Amino acid sequence: MSGTDTQDNPMKTLFHAYDIRGIAGEELDCEQAMAIARAFGDTVQEGDGRFVIGYDARTTSPSLAEAISLGLRSGGHHVTHIGLSSTPMLYWYGAEEEFDGSVMITASHLPSRYNGFKLCAGDALPLSGDQGLPEVAARVHLPFRFDRPCTPVIHHSNPLEAYLQVMRSYLRGVKPMKLAVDAGNGIGGIDTHKVFEHFNHLWLHEINFEPDGTFPNRSPNPLLPGALTRISQCVVKHGCAFGLAFDGDADRAVVVDEKGAMVSPDLLGGLLATHFLHSHPGATILYDLRSSRAIPESIEAVGGKAIRTRVGHAFVKTAMREHQALFALELSGHYYYADLHYTDNGLRTLIELAKLVSASDKPLSELLRPLQRYALSGEINLRIQDRTAALAALEQAYADASIDHLDGLSIDYPEWWFNARCSRTEPVLRVSAGATDPGQLEHHLQQIRLQLEPFQQTRSPS
Q1: Which domains does the chain have, with CATH numbers?
Q2: Residues in domain Alpha-D-phosphohexomutase alpha/beta/alpha (predicted)?
């Protein structure tokens, strides 16, 4: 059976572009978790593999971790549990210790009723809907049966202190400063607190650091409206250099500047890229195709090589390996580091931004100003009935532009541009646009909406 095409597959809705997820206890239960884990283990290798499991703060995560362990061990594999963990720490530990695969139990930025799995092969290479996940889906068999003896021994490990030592090593040389961090009651507060408590000259205002899988204080998605309100207020009240908010599993980071204003994630990534290029001249930097034109322009202006990529962590990580890239950025707030096995890491982003701001006599808002040369729409979600037909209509309407299909449809004119692509996680068309001035941007967005009007559903996505 296929993870995306087979109509009679009751689990097809669980397999997505970058992970496996659903409503815990309804769409995703422990039997399904065992079957998925068995299929994952058998896809990586037939028995005798080494796998590591971690889980986030969601209330359903521990039981799903047990089910994943049973499924893997039913295939003759060896399992190590590391317990409560951020996704970046699991990636790092799985790669450092050369496990054959890893499973992170998390639904990342989704509401508390959801849960799921991020699957990686060796060296933290993620499985995706393009490679790996369909093969796993094809091996899933329900009802689940134990058809061979389980591996009898379960191993336990706590890599936190070793991981903290690595993270602290990046934080050297930062001048005294005040920062604010909002962990959103996800998992990111644990390692962040322990890293910064060793540096008495760095004052950290900790917001929502206690893990609570019900996410009582804000959405685990820091990009949703209202999610940054408290950290913005904290930054302004206490005179912090900036504030940073994690998502639920701490692989994403969204920043507000010293005035409490949200920083567009692509512009922050461009600033970090130029920071890295000062110490790694000529390095390759990847940026996702939704980013402002200012990103490649800034990278190339300081001697770096800028390469556009598709959207999504699985594609970015593969492209980083292919191009031997030093760093990569996405509009969603994922930032990737070659020296962390090409993985995305919110804590590392916090550290690098602290170093960057510390080294300058300018505040963050001024450091970003050279990148703010274009008017940007951000990502707009439109509920479309026939997305394939809608993209074809857009391509016909803008046939005189420079066009490519790296990910969806990209239209490029000298004075403005846009990308439209089908979401891999929701039934929407995602549109992002930019122009040399706000008036042009608004005009062209109106024209795009008119082109899409015949295909648009009346209800907006939640």
Answers
A1: 12-160 (3.40.120.10), 178-262 (3.40.120.10), 375-455 (3.30.310.50)
A2: 13-131, 163-260, 265-374
Cβ(255)–Cβ(263) below 8 Å: yes
What's the Cα-to-Cα distance from 269 to each of 196, 298, 309, 321, rounded to whole Å?
22, 11, 14, 19
Question: Cα separations (Å) of 292 from 114, 169, 410, 417, 446?
Answer: 32, 32, 13, 9, 19
Residues 6+ positions from 92 with CB-CB distance below 8 Å: 124, 159, 163, 166, 340, 341, 343, 345
- CB hemisphere CA count around 316 (13 angstroms): 26
86 touches 106 (CB < 8 A): no
Adjacency order of strands within the sheet including 402-404: 375-382, 429-435, 416-422, 409-412, 402-404
Whether residue 169 lies in the annotated active site:
no
**Angle, CA of 104, 105 and 110, to the nearest 5°:** 115
Per annotation, catalytic residue among 74, 108, 128, 264: 108
Of the candidates 265, 187, 173, 169, which has an alpha carbon nearest to the alpha carbon of residue 223?
265
Residue 1 is predicted with a pLDDT of 31
CA 350, CA 253: separation in Å to the nearest integer? 8
In terms of C-beta density within 10 A (0-12 exposed, 13-18 middle, 19 or more buried), how is residue 400 classed?
exposed
ω before 176 within 30° of 0 (cis)?
no
Asked if 74 and 150 count as a contact pair (C-beta separation under 8 A), the reply is yes
Residue-averaged pLDDT of the chain: 94
pLDDT category, 427, cuts 50, 70, 90? confident
**How sure is the predictor about 252, in pLDDT bands with cuts at 50, 70 and 90?**
very high
Alpha helices, H only, 125-256: 133-139, 160-169, 188-196, 229-238
Per the CB < 8 A criterion, the answer to whether 88 and 347 are in contact is: yes
Quick check: helix, strand or coil at residue 412?
Answer: strand
Residues 6+ away with beta carbon under 8 Å from 293: 374, 417, 434
d(CA 2, CA 140): 9
**Cα 426 off chain centre by:** 16
* pLDDT per position as a tens digit, 266-317: 999 999 999 999 999 999 999 999 999 999 999 999 999 999 999 989 999 9
**Nearest partner of 18 among 133, 103, 155, judged by Cα:** 133
Alpha helices in 332-410 (DSSP H): 346-358, 364-368, 387-397
Q: Evaluate if residue 462 carries a pLDDT over 60.
A: no
- DSSP category for residue 172: T
Task: Name which of 56-65, 96-105, 318-327, 382-391 the model is least confident about.
Answer: 382-391
pLDDT-based confidence at 6, cuts 50/70/90?
very low
R_g of the chain, CA atoms, integer Å: 22
